[in-house]
Amino acid sequence: MPEPKRASYMPPGFTAITPYLTVDDPDGLVAFVKEAFGAEELDDQRAIGSDGKIAHAALRVDGGIVEIGRAAAQWRALPSGIHLYVRNVDATYKRALKAGGVSLHDVRDMEYGERAAAVRDPSGNHWYIATYTGQMGKKPR
Asked: E strand or H helix at 31, and its extent?
């Protein structure tokens, strides 16, 4: 007799490692990630605090999940770095700047086989945006 299927130990769509960004303004970061990266918020993961603002949210970005939580006394805001692969780094970089990101470096070909750019979001996190090219050893321009 086959063993009955058990419920997953992770929410649907999540992987074992999920970036969690703790910030002072989750509402602002959720808006930035949606506008800059076309993220879809997972409605069943949203929690609203007593002040009516987001306490916790989860967003799907091209198959990956990033969680965002509000900083509090014991959970201080902690800037992080996220490496995000996208189909079109040039267009994504422009959207990220338009959404309020600050350029850390413009789009360029990297020696390690990526066309990449970097922005700092309004919460201070660094987003390393890249499209894999596979062209190793190519000098950056």
From this structure: helix 26-37
Token duo for residue 49: 């605090």
- Alpha-carbon distance of 89 to 105, in angstroms, equals 12
Residue 4 has pLDDT above 70, yes or no: no
What's the Rg (C-alpha) of the chain?
17
Query: What single-letter DSSP state applies at residue 26?
Result: H
Residue 59 in tokens: 């967003």
Packing angle between helix 89-98 and helix 26-37, nearest 10 degrees?
A: 140
87, pLDDT greater than 70: yes
Strands 126-136 and 81-85: parallel
Query: What confidence score (pLDDT) does residue 139 get?
Result: 58
Q: Is residue 103 within 8 Å of 118, Cβ to Cβ?
A: yes
Q: Are 127 and 109 in contact (CB under 8 A)?
A: no
How crowded is residue 18: how many other Cβ atoms within 10 Å of its Cβ? Answer: 14
Task: Tell me which DSSP letter residue 44 carries.
Answer: G
pLDDT above 90: percentage of residues in the chain: 79
Distances (CA, A) of 49 to 44, 54, 71, 103, 140: 15, 6, 12, 32, 46
